[in-house]
Write a structure and sequence with these properties.
The chain is of the alpha+beta class and about 280 residues long. About 25% of the residues lie in helices and about 25% in strands.
Length: about 280
């Protein structure tokens, strides 16, 4: 027997780790003044869009791994409430009041993980803020309409160390060979060939034991660590057939911007009622 409820269970206490330290050299002039996660879609940084997706499902605690121009991300959150609120400035007394802002219930930890640190190393440097519990992990430049609670339930059912969300776009990303019956990742390759089908879209779930696979952090996460996880049978793939897009270059940005302007952005799910099935 099943029942429908509209509340999240204890899984919503999981932290969301976002990799936001890369250079973003293929995104054009904007990357000279801001990191790629701060490049805007619809007047908001793509980082904000990603956080809104997780927050929609009740995940409000974020650990953001900063690197290139990380101060831009820090400045954004320092002034976040100021930019949302109505403001009154008393110039003669140098006082100010802020009223009326309804802001998200986010707790955001920004970690300086270094300018040239690779992705495995960024996660290692954020370890003390992640803690010893399972956590969510994604990239700071991709949006999707993936159902996060379903992803977590799938991860728990599989019982493996890591779960990635796999999608089927054109073959220019990290390729994944999947056992279709068990959903186990058989092989992970950092760069895909044209004939490869399933690719890693981010939106991952990690057990705390993942840190053992990162070793000294001197590799890309998608290189040695993921290959070791796949080789040891400890990686699952959650196959997502809905929307996903990264913002890797100006063409991607224009595509996402157009979807937003038309009111057709599939990842804009916040504000909708969240229900889940409890067995």
């Amino acid at each position: 027997m099943e029942r429908r409820v509209c509340a999240m269970d204890h899984m919503s206490g999981m932290k969301v780790v976002i990799l936001a330290g890369g250079l973003g050299t293929r995104i054009g002039e904007e990357s000279r003044t801001k990191p790629k996660p701060m490049i805007e879609i619809g007047g908001k940084p793509i980082l904000w869009h990603i956080m809104k997706l997780y927050s929609h499902y009740g995940f409000h605690e974020f650990v953001i791994c900063c690197g290139y121009m990380g101060q831009v991300i820090k400045d954004y959150f320092v002034h976040y409430y100021l930019h949302q609120a109505d403001s009154t400035f008393y110039l003669n007394t140098r006082k100010m009041n802020f009223q009326g802002a309804a802001v998200e219930p986010w707790r955001v930890t920004l970690v300086n993980t270094g300018l040239n640190t690779l992705t495995a190393g960024r996660i290692l440097k954020a370890r003390e803020y992640i803690g010893g519990e399972p956590f969510l992990l994604t990239y700071g430049d991709g949006v999707s309409d993936v159902n996060i609670p379903d992803l977590i339930r799938f991860h728990r059912q599989q019982g493996r160390m890591a779960t990635i969300t796999a999608v089927q776009p054109l073959g220019r990303f990290g390729g994944v060979q999947i056992d279709m019956e068990t959903c186990r990742v058989l092989r992970f390759k950092e760069k895909a060939r044209v004939d490869q089908v399933w690719v890693n879209a981010g939106f991952m779930v990690m057990e705390p034991g993942i840190f053992e696979y990162l070793e000294d952090g001197s590799e890309m996460l998608e290189g040695g660590p993921f290959e070791r996880l796949a080789a040891s049978g400890q990686m699952s793939a959650y196959r997502h057939t809905g929307f996903w897009s990264c913002m890797d270059n100006m063409k991607d940005k224009a595509y996402l911007e157009e979807l937003w302007k038309k009111g057709e952005a599939p990842w804009r799910i916040w504000g909708k009622k969240v229900c889940k099935t409890v067995i």
